[in-house]
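Input.
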Amino acid sequence: MKTTDIKFHEITLADKTWMDARFAEDDRNACEYTFANNFIWRKVYQVEVTEICECLVIRFVENKKYCYSYPVGAGDKKAAIERLLFICEQEKYPLVMSPLSEIDRQQLMKWFPGKFLIEADRDDFDYIYAREKLTSLAGKKLHGKRNHIARFKDGGDWSYEPMTDENLEECRTMTYSWIKMRSDKWNEEMEEEIMVLHEAFDHMKELGLVGGVLRREGAIVAFSMGEPLNSDTFVVHFEKAYPDMQGAYPMINQQFAINACEGYDYVNREEDTGDPGLRKAKLSYYPEILLKKYVAIQSDIVYANRDREGEQIEKIWETCFGDEKEYIRFYMEHRMTEENMLVIHEDGKAVSMASFLPVRYLCEGEYVDARYVYAVATLPEYRGRGLAKRILMFAHEHYGQPLILAPAEESLMHYYETLGFRKAFPDTRAWMKDTLAALEWTENVDVTDMIKPLTTQEYVQIRDEKCAKEGYVRWDENAVRYAIELCEHYGGGAGAVESAEGERDILMYEKDDDTLVILETSLGTRALQELLPHLLKETGTSRASYGQMPGMIWLPEAMEKTKISEQGYLALTLG
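Output.
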């Protein structure tokens, strides 16, 4: 097949046989991989299909842009992607593929290193449950579900029956009543879903869909509809129940799993689309698998892959910062994720990088998601081409969140200002020189009596209580745990300093040769001065440093008019 011969066509019922064969070859457990699901949503997403290199490829429109499925089937997936890249190049738009499984993600990075930005889409994760758990609802965690079902059964005569030609029109009528009951919350997405549901009603037999109906006192009060997804999983596409009838939703959920999903180990109840109420409801059933799904976008700025590019990243880091391999690997093991370090590839390798660690930023009295920028670096032979600038500008647009950093050198502040960063955290640097002679009067003091151990949770709690103010940068427990472990590794530590009145303050410190580095403390100046001589003696250091250069922030376009305090609290920079 020549690339120019590839033609997509609108999906029709005539495509079912060959598409089912391709789906069966991959045996995927994501809800998108059925013919029926693609057919009933065809009008909403302008679904088209074709076969490339003996693989099924689905094309659809989302946010007014073409998006393609990852090639499905036993054919040559790599060759199919190469042809999709050619099509997109001819049409002058980047190739976007969705959804990808974890296996797809690994394949794509192996076949096309440095070519795709691949991100998990949490709103699109599928909730997959063990059928046995949905039917029995056994255990303490699901006690509430059993109670709701008991209340439903207490309410009167009820029955369950399969959805058939005889009761299908009643189900349609029930949807109109359901719409009226949700009129105050009605939106465009709900309108689309009802349209798609009626497509499923219209073609139920041809699509191989299975339905179940719940009645109370003869009237339909709930129904569900789905189909076999793969060899061990049944997928539920629709579930509707009267919202004011206690127990109707858990009852249809349970009865459908008992009667329609028999013979399958798992039930896929699809994604939550980011709806908070729906997410809470789906999580309340405790899924066996929260199926991670990814979106891949053709890009020359991509996420670094530690498994495949670890040595390349180490080389950039060591060359640019001079850090020990031990520290670099400790960081990569504990702080680097599949989606927080961006890199640019040249000559088949990573040559420029920057990390963007998630934090929370207290702004105008509310916390917003932000990113702390760390380890911005380019190999010397690739400098002067604006690679680091491209990464930072990409991150500014892509994340759409405030970017926060603490420049390593004062000379870099002007560079960051030209991009859009501005000062938001004061200069807190201070050097304190002491000698062992000054410690004679404290020889019998044990530092362990003064600095008490803390759990990570306690440290974060005290930090939030003592340090939070306008412009406060909040790290989560995982980040703080990493910082404490790193300090301990380098001869330091963290803990609580308790006053005579029982007030607790935090202190985190590390050793750098002969210098005691105070990374963070909520102690006042006097209390710190009283503690410092003991800590110097304990760590075998003769001088101490505390604080950092002015920190900076770059607001996203949506926050450009936000008032930013120049006296924010950054302190702990968890590189």
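Confidence is low (pLDDT under 50) at residues 434-442.
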